[in-house]
């Protein structure tokens, strides 16, 4: 799926479902961080008009996802907790190249975003197929489709705007790194946990 090297064990969905307040809190903040990331890509790469427009749409969509999740939290009588530290994303951030050319850093930032979208999409798929709560299963199915589109957008912009990066080669490196990394996860009620 989306080139991912390792698929999530469906039992992770049971862990997630056993603590909905926790997974929904973590999920809400994932959406907020996705919006923040899109905004920062816009801020630093505003010379690319189509990127500014498409990432503005993504930033808005991610905040709509945030809104949907906090609504679910409220409807169910849960409380939105504080932002959870996302160790998985921290490790991906460490892997991204920041010291090469400006173009290299820009392209890697897009691939970093594509990578998180790909894994989030896969995790939403696992939730949609395995949780017993049918309302939430449908919700996660819809989000899975949306995040798959974001993944495609980020990857396409990386291909379009690369001047000195072999994007296909670098993307393979990302997939390999992430495939190793994700082996240590899949046992917590966190979207990337
Ligand atoms: Fe989202
Ligand atoms: Fe997304």
Task: Explain what the structure shows.
This protein is an all-alpha fold and 193 residues long. It has one domain: Ferritin (Up-down Bundle), CATH 1.20.1260.10. The protein is built from 7 helices and no strands. It has helices at 11-17, 20-44, 49-75, 87-95, 102-130, 134-161, 167-181. Helix 2 (20-44) runs antiparallel to helix 3 (49-75) and helix 5 (102-130) runs antiparallel to helix 6. The longest helix is centred in the middle third of the chain and has 29 residues, at 102-130. It is globular. The model has no long low-confidence stretch (mean pLDDT 96). Bound molecules: fe (ii) ion (2 copies). The site of one fe (ii) ion has 6 residues, from helix 2, helix 3 and helix 6.
Task: Give the structure's gist in a few sentences.
It is built from seven helices and no strands.
Q: Unreliable segments (pLDDT under 50, ≥5 consecutive)?
A: none
Present as ligands are:
fe (ii) ion
CATH H-level superfamily: Ferritin, core subunit, four-helix bundle
Q: Main beta sheet: strand number and arrangement?
A: none
State the separation between the terminal residues, measured CA to CA: 19 Å
Protein name: tRNA-(MS[2]IO[6]A)-hydroxylase
Enzyme class: oxidoreductase
Pfam families: MiaE
Keywords: Oxidoreductase
């Amino acid at each position: 799926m989306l080139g991912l090297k390792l698929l999530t064990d469906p039992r992770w969905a049971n862990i997630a479902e056993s603590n909905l307040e926790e997974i929904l809190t973590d999920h809400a903040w994932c959406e907020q961080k996705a919006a923040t990331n899109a905004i920062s890509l816009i801020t630093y790469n505003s010379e690319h008009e189509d990127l500014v427009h498409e990432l503005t749409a993504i930033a808005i969509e991610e905040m709509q996802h945030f809104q949907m999740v906090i609504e679910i939290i409220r409807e169910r009588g849960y409380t939105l907790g504080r932002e959870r530290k996302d160790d998985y994303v921290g490790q991906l951030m460490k892997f991204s190249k920041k010291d090469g050319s400006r173009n290299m850093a820009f392209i890697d930032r897009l691939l970093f975003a594509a990578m998180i979208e790909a894994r989030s999409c896969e995790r939403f798929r696992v939730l949609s197929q395995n949780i017993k709560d049918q309302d939430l299963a449908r919700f996660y199915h819809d989000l899975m489709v949306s995040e798959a589109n974001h993944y495609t957008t980020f990857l396409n912009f990386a291909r379009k705007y690369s001047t000195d990066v072999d994007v296909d080669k670098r993307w393979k490196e990302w997939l390999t790194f992430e495939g190793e990394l994700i082996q240590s996860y899949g046992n917590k009620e966190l979207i990337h946990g």
